[in-house]
Automatic annotation (TrEMBL), chain A:
UniProt cross-references to Pfam families, sorted A to Z: BPD_transp_1 (PF00528)
ABC transmembrane type-1 domain segment(s): 66-250
The family this protein is said to belong to: Belongs to the binding-protein-dependent transport system permease family.
Organism name: Microbacterium immunditiarum
Protein name: ABC-type nitrate/sulfonate/bicarbonate transport system permease component
Topology versus the membrane: Multi-pass membrane protein
From TrEMBL, chain B:
Renumbered residue ranges of the record's region Disordered: 1-33
Keywords: Cell membrane, Membrane, Transmembrane, Transmembrane helix, Transport
Pfam families: BPD_transp_1
Natural source organism: Microbacterium immunditiarum
Record-given protein name: ABC-type nitrate/sulfonate/bicarbonate transport system permease component
InterPro entries assigned to the protein according to its UniProt record, in alphabetical order: MetI-like (IPR000515), MetI-like_sf (IPR035906)
Topology within the bilayer: Multi-pass membrane protein
Length: 263, 300
């Protein structure tokens, strides 16, 4: 379940952490000093990248580019989660629906998300709405399919118990089906989140007038190399932070599940 | 189980008491709904109308869309399904299309191959040498969450818009799932299996053949499926953003020139490509892992 806990460590505790830090710190040190007096136009010094980073991304660009990017991504993701879970519960309970729509769902899941970007530009233009809708559309499928699967595979004994306790339908959905399906729903949400991030970046590179992806690609095209590097750094950091936060939320929500697994 | 309940449950609105979940299936976790459904259905003979249902629904949906566009409900940017099919039939035999299709497949295959080789090699190394894992795991955990497209501006800067960019980015997209699945597979080999192998005095080669590979291969199969999906997404993204030859570029060109039926036709082709790749890998998996009672539960 939690991938990180499987790791076999050469040594644990403080000594282990120090050993683990050798390579990351080494990379940063080599990068910093190795690039200090670089003449290469493509690989500016880490110092100037960080300076540009502080100048650009920690100033007014937070409001003009970073927040719009993140806002679009989370808006699309939120729509996808709500729709995906709702339709997923419906399809998971009413099997014949899931069965009937299976070919359509499979097609749209297999379709590479990025191929839809030109379509969304044609249909909806280049504002915020098409990006949000496209992100929602693309990330709904992992949530939907995992919810169907999770709701479908509930332990029959649990179902019987719930029925004999006379839970009504809403209670069954809230306390039994969503609960039992939540590990899979969250796994689907994690896939959806990373797809939302990719689509956010690519839509901004293609058709946008603001956003981190837009700034980074235009920086490359106009040879503002430090700016480009700082954009890459920001995108990388955001990818990691967003994923890290999601893992924290997931662990918190699934404490019961992880404990069950360990018992 | 599905067969009888599906037939009996009648109109979808009347849900009734839910059918007991297919507990016996114990199928794979995650995005593998399809395999579960098809495998469960294939096992028993079903009435014809139930077997025809997915196709009937799909055809009905297509007919519905066709009807709406004929009635002029959609804006003119949405062509009717028949005109998309017509465009597809016209475009597909042209040499330009075949060249683009081949370019996309080549970029996908080369990138995937590079990513898989590097991923498996690194995964095995990290899984067998704990010190190496300890040294690298912060860096790897850091880098795995950076989406491959993020590197695109840098590669464009250094290499220009060439197919090489697609190779490298597809490889980056493929390497992470492969690496971590391999690693989990290698680390997850049950101690009792290893001990048994040692007690029987297996040589290293025999251990590899009879203990390591069978334990790791379900993980590899999952990793390969995720890696292939990533690689295709990345290849199409590179083609759309840059001018690297391929179906993605053609979609973007049709889109910006307002040739919509052709654009949708190519999107359909790319989607079918994704389906075929997925289906091919699943068949390979079933064929290779037929000995495996059920696919192991792997969280990607």
């Amino acid at each position: 379940m939690t991938a990180q806990t499987i790791g076999k460590r050469w040594s644990t505790g403080l000594g282990g952490v120090i050993v683990s830090l050798i390579v990351p710190v080494g990379i940063l040190v080599v990068w910093w000093f190795g690039s200090l007096n670089t003449g290469s136009p493509f690989f500016p010094s880490l110092q100037s990248i960080l300076e540009t980073f502080a100048e650009t991304w920690l100033s007014e660009k937070v409001v003009t580019d970073v927040l719009p990017s993140l806002g679009r991504m989370f808006a699309g993701f939120a729509i996808a989660v709500v729709v995906g879970v709702a339709v997923g519960v419906l399809f998971g309970r009413i099997r014949i629906l899931a069965y009937a729509f299976n070919p359509v769902l499979q097609f749209f899941r297999a379709l590479p998300a990025t191929a839809l970007i030109p379509v969304s530009i044609v249909l909806l233009g280049i504002g915020d709405t098409p990006k949000i809708l496209l992100i929602a559309f693309v990330s709904v499928f992992p949530v939907l399919l995992n919810t169907i699967d999770g709701v479908r595979n509930i332990d029959p004994v649990v179902e019987d118990v719930v029925r004999s306790y006379r839970f009504d339908k809403a209670q069954r959905v809230r306390w039994v089906q969503l609960h039992a399906a939540s590990p899979q729903v969250l796994a689907g949400m994690r896939v959806a989140l990373s797809m939302a991030f990719v689509v956010m970046v690519v839509t901004e590179m293609l058709a946008a007038t603001n956003g981190i992806g837009y700034v980074t690609l235009t920086a490359q095209q106009s040879f503002q190399i430090s700016l480009m590097w700082s954009g890459l750094l920001l995108l990388g950091l955001l990818g990691i932070i967003i994923n890290g936060l999601f893992v924290l939320v997931e662990r918190r929500l699934l404490r019961w599940y992880v404990q069950d697994q360990e018992d | 189980m599905p067969s009888t309940d599906l037939a009996r449950s009648g109109p979808p609105t009347q849900a009734g008491p839910p059918a007991p979940a297919s507990a016996g299936a114990g199928g794979p976790v995650g995005d593998d709904t399809a395999t579960v459904i098809t495998r469960a259905t294939r096992r028993r003979k079903k009435p014809l109308w139930v077997r025809a249902l997915p196709w009937a629904t799909t055809i009905a949906l297509i007919a519905f869309v066709e009807l709406l566009s004929r009635l002029g409900v959609f804006p003119e940017e949405v062509p009717s399904f028949t005109s998309v099919v017509g465009a597809a039939l016209e475009v597909i035999p042209t040499p330009e299309f075949l060249e683009s299709l081949w370019a996309t497949l080549e970029q996908f295959a080369v990138g995937l191959a590079i990513g898989v080789v590097i991923g498996v090699a690194l995964g095995v190394a990290l899984g067998t040498i704990p010190l190496l894992y300890q040294l690298l795991h912060y860096v790897l955990d850091f880098m795995r969450f950076i989406p491959a497209v993020v590197y695109l501006p840098l590669l464009l800067l250094v290499m220009g818009a060439r197919p090489g960019v697609a190779y490298i980015l597809a490889a980056v997209g493929a390497v992470w799932p492969m690496l971590f699945q391999t690693y989990y597979g290698v680390v997850g080999i049950p101690q009792i299996l290893k001990d048994t192998g040692r007690v029987f005095g297996l040589t290293n080669a025999q251990r590899l053949r009879h203990v390591v590979i069978p334990s790791v291969s379900p993980f590899l199969a999952t990793g390969l499926r995720i890696a292939a999906a990533h690689a295709l997404v990345v290849v199409v993204a590179v083609e759309i953003i840059t001018t690297v030859i391929g179906l993605g570029r053609d979609i973007a060109v049709y889109s910006s020139n307002g040739i919509y039926p052709e654009m949708y036709a190519l999107v359909g082709v790319v989607g079918i490509l994704g389906l075929l790749i997925n289906w091919g890998l699943e068949s390979l998996e079933r064929w290779q892992l037929h000995w495996h009672s059920s696919y192991r539960e792997v969280t990607a």
